[in-house]
C-alpha cells in the first residue's frame, strides 16, 4: 500500500522481485540459451556455490524519472512491456567486473568495495566518472525502447536510464561463475586432503619465551607449502585431468528445469528446457547494494532434481538407477583414444547411504520400508567452500549383481583407485551402444564425475 501510494501520488518509480514462477522459467531458459554458468541453475536458491545465477525484477516507471550513470556486474536483458525509456550507453573499461559502480546508492562501504574491485583490473578507475577515458571508451549511444522492445547490455557497460512515458519493464540479470573461483574451489579441495595444508595457523607473539626457541615460523611453514604448490597444480592439470575433474560432463549439460516453489501446486512441472551473484542494478529504481544483491540471488547446483544434503533420501524421484542410465544427447563415455585410461576423479567420493542414515534412526526416512543398502551418495568437489557443499551431489542405486558401486566404495576405503579393480572388459564397455548393464553403470559414473579418462 505504501509503495502504491508513493507511486501514484508522489511520482516515485516502483520495482519488485518477479514471482518465482516467472523468474525461474526466465532465468533457467536464459542461462541455458546464453551458456552462462554452463546453464546450471538452482531455482530453490539454497546453494552457496553457483555456476549460474539470475533474478528478474519488474519496474514501473514514472515520467521523467532518471537513474544516473552506473555500471552493473551482470549480463542484463530488459524487456519494455509498456511505455518508453531512453537508454544512453558507453562502453566501460572493466571487463567481467566483480562489482558494479552505482553512485545512485553510494555509501562509504559501497564506494570502497566497488573501487577496489574495479581497480583489480583497472588501477586508474574512478568512481562515478563515466566520461573519463580511464573509465570508458567510444562515443555515447542512445536508444529509446518502446513497447515490445528488448535490449541486451553486457556487464561493465556504463548506462543512464530515463523514463519517457510511464510504463512497465522487466529486467533479467544473469551471472556465471568465473574461472578463478571454479579452479580455486577445486584446488582447496585437493590441498585440504593433506595434513600440512589443514594445519591451523599459530603464530608466536614477539618477545615471548617460545619465540626464542628454534621452530619454524608461520612464514617459514607457509614458504614450504608454497614451494610444493606448483607440483600440486601440475599434477591436477595433467596426471589428474584437471579440467575434466573440475567440470565433469554433468556440469556441462544444463539440468532439467521445474518450478521449485511448493506453493505452486500443480504448476510445479517439468519444462522442455532440459538439461562462487548479483542483484539488478540495471534500471531506474534499484537502490540495493551489491552485498544485499548477493544474498538474494538464486544459485546453481547440479540439477533442480538433485537432493540437498538435508533431505538425505526423501524421494525415489531423486535417485538415479545406474543400470538404466541413458547417455544425454551429444555425450558419450567412450574411451577417447587407445592411450587413455580410466581413473577416479580426485575430487570425488562415493559412500553408502545406509552408512549415513543409520546415524539418524528412521526419522529421516520416508517410510520404515526404505532399503538404503542399494543406494549410494556421490559427492564431487565439496571442500572448496566453508559449508562443504558439493558441486555435484547425486544419489545412485544399483540393484543388480554386478556390485560395481560397492567395489568403488571398498576400494576408496583401502586407498586404492577403484579403476584398478575394474576388468578391462568392463572399462572398454564405456560409451558402447550395446545397452549392456555394465556399460550403463560406467557411463553413469563417468557422466557424474566419479571417473574420467586421462592420457597416459
TrEMBL record:
Region (Disordered) location: 244-313
PROSITE patterns associated with the record: JMJC
Biased composition (Basic and acidic residues): 258-271
Entry protein name: JmjC domain-containing protein
Segments crossing the lipid bilayer: none
Gene source species: Attheya septentrionalis
Matches recorded under SUPFAM superfamilies: Clavaminate synthase-like (SSF51197)
Ranges of Acidic residues composition bias in the record: 281-294
InterPro entries (alphabetical): Cupin_8 (IPR041667), JmjC_dom (IPR003347)
Annotated ranges, domain JmjC: 16-191
